[in-house]
Amino acid sequence: MLRKKLIAANWKMNNAPTGFDAKDSSYRTKSDVDVVIFPTFLDIEKCTKAELIVGAQYGRPEEKGAFTGDESMKQIKTSGCTYVLCGHSERRIHHSESDAFVAEQVIAAIDCGLIPILCIGETADEREMGQAKEVVKRQLETVLLATSHQLQARNLVIAYEPVWAIGTGKTATPTDAEEMHAYIRSLLSEELQNDMRIIYGGSMKPENAKDLLSQKNIDGGLVGAASLDPVAFGKIVNSAL
Ligand code: 13P
Hints:
By secondary structure, the protein is α/β, with parallel strands linked by helices. It has a single domain, classed as TIM Barrel. Helix content is 36%, strand content 15%. The protein is built from 10 helices and 8 strands. The protein has helices at residues 44-49, 73-78, 89-94, 99-111, 124-128, 132-147, 174-186, 190-193, 206-213, 230-239; strands spanning 5-10, 33-38, 55-56, 83-86, 115-120, 157-160, 197-201, 220-223. Bound molecules: 1,3-dihydroxyacetonephosphate. The site of 1,3-dihydroxyacetonephosphate has 14 residues, from β8.
């Protein structure tokens, strides 16, 4: 089993932090840890020019057309991106993205050679009602079914991001997160199970990163707020070494 840790910075609707492009920037990928950044579309070009590994926060499945304000997976690939986020909860909430639409995004991303990071996770209400696993299973299986012909462990990453832990300062305990990651892994086919990376997102910070990243089934982090501080982000990356 060889799953290289992946630490991703999701800058959301924020400018690239000062010094992101420095030679010794914490946003640069390392030999032992994949580091990927997700800037706004406006900052993608300067990040690729700075030779960082870059992803887009969203991509539309159609190649081109009348979709005001959107960018296609193909355009994202052409702009030099390697990764793309699919189905982040903020997109599901603010843009009403359905599981089926997220699956279309994943298919289009893989088809044009991008690596999608599929975001799944339950809300606080769903967790309270005991539906966390059911929700995560539905979100994941819609995509797995649609992409079964294309999937290899290296062309998809799964991010478990419990919605109640995003931007709230509440982190899933390492034990709770590990339990869900192990469950998610159990839903994967035998060929994918050992090698597919499942990363955690939701208030990851230097103080909790080591405990989360040392769990058996947690293969990295998708970091929001703490990724805007190069020093804090660097500490998280170092916790993965
Ligand atoms: P926070 O780290 O700010 O909770 O955000 C997590 C997230 O949504 C990453 O995609």
